[in-house]
Design brief:
- It is a single chain.
- Helices cover 32% and strands 20% of the residues.
- The chain is an alpha/beta fold.
- The strands form four sheets. It has a six-stranded mixed beta sheet with strand order 3-2-1-4-17-16, sandwiched between helices. Strands 6-14-7-8-10-9 form a six-stranded parallel beta sheet.
- The chain is globular and about 70 Å long.
């Protein structure tokens, strides 16, 4: 009898876990990848910027895993709504939770809940066509926008804001979103970091892309680009060099302007009924290396604030969760008997997409060691339970039908390889006409 494992989540962590189970198991294994959305690939589909086609090509690798005979995709199945942990433990020998980190951290400042103050993940989900976000959610009618954070997500957000709709036309951005981008009134984008250039979290490749923007002047203030001596890693040295070269540039009058700011922290989002400004305080490092305010303030006249200061996971129904680390407590991936975790939900939002591969491999080694020699769970298949509850999962073939419909939509619009369908209804019409 094959070892049966349920993997919850079909992003990179979940699919790498499925792959590791197939490769590492010395006995037959059957892996069901359960996903609440009709579509697989998680952040590769809904988190990678649309103009980063090379990174999005990781989906081709993940696709091959889902096409293994030992792996099955079950879309449209939600833990806590359609099935419980007990249901899964009654149908599988083990369960691995791989749902990632789905929400942004809060700034914790006054005015954060004003309309126009938005988590960067919501904005990313919008331009990536996530079915949880209405394509009409954002109207880019403010001339000035602030993005809080100096990591790769912030860089993606400001790049999309700075580009023209025509520059994104060949990507898979949903057509309604592309229309909104074409109507954008944004003229100035402020990317704000609490610390200096040497502390920024973006990678050099992502940073350099900003310097190649055809539609925006990229500006850095010389006094904010100063870095005192230090033995910095090569990546950091590269970032500093690029930023200081921008500080020596003169704007050439492109339609938009991107100001990359350092040594400023948000202290209040201003406005009566919606965002009307962002109050910032100049910062410095204390002797202990902490960021402290200097009492010098400035206000940016922005109509939207996008918060990009880190991701965090959310609790899963019936699964242990630490409010301190915002992860599922585990030992090398083990949570409880026959329950495991992998990816950001296991270790926090660190590393790149490929980091999930070694992380998943560790969890699978723990799982296989724990289950070696144990009796298999003798219970009815999950299919019977779902059928009893009137739940018909999205199959892998139905996902391929959604993909084909997106390719056909792109052809009909004269746009690239595919244009994302938006909303569950449109996806279901495509795969179950």
């Amino acid at each position: 009898m094959a070892l049966r494992v349920a993997v919850i989540g079909s992003g990179p962590a979940g699919i790498y876990t499925a792959e590791a189970l197939v490769k590492q198991s010395a006995e037959p294994v059957q892996v069901d990848v359960l996903e609440r959305l009709p579509t697989p690939y998680g952040l590769v589909r809904y988190g990678v910027a649309p103009d980063h086609t090379s990174i999005k090509s990781i989906a081709n690798y993940l696709r091959r895993v889902l096409e293994l005979p030992e792996v099955r995709f079950l879309g449209g199945v939600t833990l806590g709504e359609h099935v419980s942990v007990d249901d899964l433990l009654g149908a599988y020998d083990a369960v691995v939770y791989c749902t990632g980190a789905m929400v942004d951290r809060k700034l914790g400042i006054p005015g954060e809940d004003l309309p126009g103050s938005v988590a960067a993940t919501d904005f990313v989900n919008w331009y990536c066509g996530h079915p949880d976000v209405d394509p009409g959610r954002f109207t880019l009618d403010s001339p000035e926008v602030a993005v809080i954070g100096v990591g790769n997500v912030a860089v993606d957000v400001v790049r999309v804001l700075a580009k023209t709709a025509d520059e994104l036309r060949a990507t898979d951005v949903p057509h309604d979103v592309l229309q909104r981008l074409s109507e954008s009134q944004v003229k100035a984008i402020h990317m704000v970091g609490r610390r200096g250039p040497e502390h920024a979290k973006f990678t050099l490749k992502e940073l350099r892309e900003l310097g190649d923007l055809a539609n925006a002047d990229v500006c850095v203030r010389p006094d904010e680009a100063i870095v005192l001596g230090g033995d910095f890693p090569r990546q950091v040295q590269g970032n500093i060099k690029v930023l200081q070269s921008w500080a020596a540039r003169e704007p050439v009058g492109r339609p938009r302007r991107l100001d990359v700011r350092f040594w400023l922290r948000p202290v209040e989002i201003l406005g009566a009924e919606r965002v009307e400004g962002l109050k910032l305080e100049r910062t410095r490092l204390s002797q202990e290396g902490r960021v402290v305010g200097t009492g010098e303030f400035e206000t940016l006249p922005v109509g939207m604030v996008l918060r990009s200061v880190g991701y965090q996971s959310v609790p899963l129904p019936g699964v242990p969760f630490s409010d301190k680390t915002m992860t599922v407590p585990n030992e090398a991936g083990r949570v409880r008997d026959r329950e495991y975790v992998a990816g950001w939900l296991k270790r926090g939002p660190t590393g790149v997409i490929g980091t999930n591969k070694s992380d998943a491999a560790e969890t699978v080694r723990t799982l296989l060691s724990d289950l070696e020699g144990r009796d298999r769970v003798a219970a009815r298949p999950i299919d019977e339970l779902l059928a009893e509850r009137g739940i018909r999962p999205i199959t892998y073939d139905e996902w391929l039908a959604i993909e084909a419909a997106e390719a056909e939509l792109a052809r009909s619009l004269g746009r690239g390889e595919r244009v994302k369908l938006v909303g569950l209804e449109a996806m279901l019409r495509a795969c179950r006409p």
